[in-house]
Amino acid sequence: MNFILYDGIEWRNLFPLTFTRPVSEIRLGFFTIKERWEKYIGKKIDDVITQPFLSKKYSSYQKKIFKDVFFINSSYLPNEEFVSLILSLERNEAISFHGEIIAFRKKEFYFSYEKKISNEIEYQKIYEVKKIIHIKNTWDIFIHNKIVLENDFLFYTKNRKSYPLLGNNNILLYKERIFLEEKLETHNVVLNAKYGPIYIDKGVTLMEGTIIRGPACIGKRSTLNIGCKIYGGTTIGPFCKINGEIENTVIFSYSNKSHDGFLGNSVLGEWCNLGAGTNVSNLRNDYSKVTVWNYEIKDFVLTNIQFFGMIMGDHSKSAINTQFNTATIVGVGASIFGFGFPPRHIPSFSLGGIQNNDRKIPFHRVCKTAHIVMNRRNIHFSVLEKNILKYLYQENLEF
Predict the structure, then answer these.
(1) Which stretch of DSSP H or E encloses residue 390?
(2) Residue range 221-229: average pLDDT?
(3) What Cα–Cα distance (Å) separates residue 353 from each residue in 86, 206, 282, 338, 341?
(4) Could you read off the pLDDT of 349-378 as tens digits, one per residue?
(5) Domain shared by 147 and 110, yes or no
(6) Looking at residue 9, what DSSP letter applies?
(7) What is the pLDDT of residue 81?
(8) Would you say 283 and 236 are in contact if contact means Cβ atoms under 8 Å apart?
(9) End of a domain among 116, 135, 154?
(10) Total structural domains in the chain?
(11) Rounded distance, CA 67 to CA 51, Å?
(12) Residue 37: φ, ψ to 5°
């Protein structure tokens, strides 16, 4: 019995975050989607089917014929009902949601990139899942993050005991909804779980004056600097350095917002850095619904969303005092600086801001910066990582 997560049509809807990863590596709540599935089914995911240029890093399969496999669309999050249905599937049975096949079991399956993974199959029986969280657009990540944090807390801390918070003058409100993975000593911090649970992973540093209001998750070995303010709905991934005011935001691993400035209703990929004084607007002055850049039609489209900050792809950086407008989309590997508001769509590998937004960073400089940044965290900038960036640079997927 094998479990495989596959990218559906949602992969393109989740640009720029999925330029550099399969859907299963998107983070929200406590975990990536893949990690969450592994927690729910109690075993490692056997493989991931994603785009060919990503598969060398994220997939291990060598053959395209799979035996006795449960296939699951990565953009759907596990819950007890969904997992129970999956585990009860017989061969050649499937599960649907709103008429779309989202999981199925096959005795033998031949995979081809030229076909949609489940549309060519006839099933003996199809079960309908009634309630599930579907991540089909980038903004679904921060829209659903509060409820995912609540669900993850209930699921992951059940029948487990939190370590104590040590130190002086700390204030813990609704302590039963605060979970620490190891002893943490700090002073003059406030953890308020009245409005949602707070989860703090191993090796976290909370400097003096930190205030966290749940629901929130602080990932392994991340640091919250002096006076940091974390509002509800926020996930800080592992190995991040954070400060300022953050609300309803998901920050993937190894990204930094180390200084003052506001960030709300946003998602940052990995290896991003926001310079001191960077601010992100998450609400228009006229309070109207926002338009968002659509990579498929290459234009802005109207959404039903009022609060929307920024989506930033991996390896992008902003200089000090950068001011991002509401609903800004930043691609991969961009370096943003200069006067005025940057454009609300910043293509990958862009250099500068509104005054020179057609400039592109030479690829050797993209690699040099990635090498320096990753080396500071004792992470090797691998050939696999370089080849993904090279493919994006050469193919111009967003044009």
Answers:
(1) helix 383-395
(2) 97
(3) 48, 34, 19, 5, 8
(4) 999 866 555 689 999 999 999 999 999 999
(5) no
(6) T
(7) 93
(8) no
(9) 135
(10) 2
(11) 21
(12) -60, -40
